[in-house]
Amino acid sequence: PGLWDMHVHFGGGDTLVSENKSLLPLYLANGVTTVRDCSVDLSPYVFDWKAKIAEGSLLGPKFFGLLDEYGSVELGKKADLVLVNSNPLLNIGATKDIYMVLKAGRTYTKADLKELLSELEEINHPQHN
User: Fold this and answer.
1) What are phi and psi of 57, to 5 degrees?
2) Which of 26, 28, 34, 104 is paired with 93 by a 20 to 30 Å CA distance?
3) Radius of gyration (Cα) for the chain, nearest Å?
4) Which residues pair with 64 in a beta bridge?
């Protein structure tokens, strides 16, 4: 949570539907502005709540990160990816061996990333001649 985006995470599928719905007005009363999907198992009821909150017939914070926009890599969904050269589950150090980054529809190769890093270092630590 931050000063501009106080949020909570939902999870629990159908097992927590009534508990989650009863908390919606309390979230607003305590400054929570957004609900995020933390487990990609939201109940279909939650999608109904999103629409009702948007039309003003249900009191609650806005919903962000629902499966209609996020949660998997497929056509029409939003996804930023970091591709690595080997399996980080076998060696966590593999996360440093980046092959490519896909961000906001743009592809960045390792050379592109090194160039961006150099530019940022120059901006943050200019060489005085």
Assistant:
1) -95, -5
2) 104
3) 20
4) 36
Does the pLDDT of residue 54 top 60, yes or no? yes
Over 60: is that where the pLDDT of 9 sits?
A: yes
> Are 27 and 5 spatial neighbours (Cβ–Cβ below 8 Å)?
no
Residue 108 phi/psi, 5-degree rounding, is -120, 120
pLDDT at 1: 41
pTM over 0.85: no
CA distance 64 to 74: 18
In the numeric block, which tokens belong to residue 56? 């003003």
Burial of 78 (0-12, 13-18, 19+ CB in 10 A): exposed
